[in-house]
Amino acid sequence: MFGRLRANPPLRRLLGAWAQSCVGTGAGYVALLLLTLGHLHTAWALGAVLLADYLPSIALGAWFGALADRYPKRRLLVLGSLLQAGAYGGLAISHTAFPIVSLALLAGTGSALERPAVRAALPVLAGEATQVAAAAYDTARWLGMTAGPLVAAALFAVGGVALPLALNAVSFVIAAAVMASVAIAPAPLGDDEPAGLGIRAGLSAALAMPAIAIVVASSAGTFIAGGLLNVCEPLLARHVLHGSASDYALLVACYCAGMVTATALVARRGTKPPSVLLPRYVVAVLLTAGGMCGSAIAGSVLLAGFTFAATGVGNALLLVSGTQLILTCVPNAVQGRLFGAKDTVEGACFLIGLAGAGALVAAASVRVTLGTGAAICAVSGLAAAAALRGRAGGLGALPGSPATNPPRVAADALERSP
Asked: Distance of CA 404 to CAs 53, 314, 355, Å?
C-alpha cells in the first residue's frame, strides 16, 4: 500500500510538505512552552498560551471546515501555512506576555484553517487508498513531531529558544511553497448532497451515523485529559522530576515516537472495515488512560519516557482510527465540516482541560492532575465501549462504508476555482 502512495506524486508532495513542517512544529512547540515558562513563570501562563493556540479551533473550526468543503483546498493550505510562518517568526523575537499570547493565537488560526483542508484533501488525492493515506498523514505528523523536539534539544545549546521558533517559521514557508504546487479537485456532489449545504445541515448529515457521534463524544473526553497533560508535561519534567530543558524535550520525543510507531503500524495494515476500526478506537482510549496513569506515578525521567511513549501509542491509535472512520463512512462533500466541527468540540474540551490543569496543579499537585486525566480517559473509553456494544450492529458495516460508497474522485483530478 505504501508503494501506491509513493506512486502518487500530488499526495507525496502534500505529505512531504506536511512532514517537514511538523519537524519545525515539534521544535517550535517545545520552544514555545519553554519560552512561556522562562518569561512568564506560571502554569497559568502555560495554559493561556495553549488556549491561544486552540481558541481558533473552538471559535472557527466548523466555519473553516465549511470553507474546506466549498472552496479550493490548496488556497486554504497555503494561507494556513503562511499564517503560522508569520506567527512563529514573531515568537522568535518575543519576550513579554502580550506578543507571546497574540502570536500563539495567530499560529492557532493558521493551524485551525489548515487541518480540515488537509484531511478532506486525502480522499481526493488517494482514492481507494484513503485509509492508508490517513495513516501516512498521521505518521508524517508524528515523525516530524518526534524529530522536532530532538532538534530543539540540540539547538537550545546553540541559540536558546529563539532558534527552534525561527526554524519552525522557515518550515511553514517551505510547506506553503510545496502545497501551492499540489492540484486538489473539489469533491463532486452526489444526489443527496446539495450545493451550498450549510454548516448545521452538513453536520446533521455527517453525525446521522451513531457510531461516528460516539467517537466524537469519546474524543471530547480524551481532549480534556490532553489539556491536563499538556500543562503538566514541562512541570513534571522540570519541577517534579528535576530534569533539564533537554529532558523535557526528550519526554516529548518519547511521546511522539510512540505515536509514530502506532500510525506506521496502522498504515502497514492497510484498509480495514468499521468493525475493526471501532474496537481499535476503544482500546486506544483505554491505553491512553494507562499511559497517563503511569506518568502520574513515575519516579524518574527514564520511567516517564516509557509512560509517555505508551500514552503516545494510545493517542495515535485513537486519532488515526477516528480519522479513518470519518473518511470511510462520511460523504466527502461534508467531511470538511465534520472535521472542523470535531476540532471545535475537541478544542473546547481542551480548554476545559487547560483551565482545570491550572486549578488542579495549584490546589493539589502535578501527579494528581495527571491521575485525573487518566481517569477521564478511562471513563470515556468504557462509556464508548458500552454505547457501541448496546447498539445493534454498532460494530458492523456502517452506511457509507467502502462496500456501499466507493471513491468518486480520481486521484489525478485537477483543482478548479469556486
From this structure: 39, 30, 44
pLDDT tens figures, 283-327? 999 999 999 999 999 988 889 999 999 999 999 899 888 888 888
Which residues in 48-149 belong to E strands, given as ranges? Answer: none
- The three-class DSSP label of residue 131 is helix
- Distance of alpha carbon 338 from alpha carbon 313, whole angstroms: 24
Asked if 413 contacts 127 with a C-beta cutoff of 8 angstroms, the reply is no
Domains and CATH numbers, the chain: 2-188+198-390 (1.20.1250.20)
CA distance 326 to 332: 9
- Rounded to whole angstroms, how far apart are CA atoms 243 and 245? 7
Q: How many CA atoms are closer than 13 Å to the CA of 347, on its beta-carbon side?
A: 24
What is this structure's pTM?
0.71
CA 390 – CA 383 distance, rounded (Å): 11
3-state secondary structure 267-306: HHHCCCCHHHHHHHHHHHHHHHHHHHHHHHHCCCHHHHHH
Q: Which residues contact 389 (CB under 8 A, 6 or more apart)?
A: none
Amino acid in the structure at residue 37: L
Joined grid coordinates for residue 403: 462496500
E strand or H helix at 170: helix 162-179
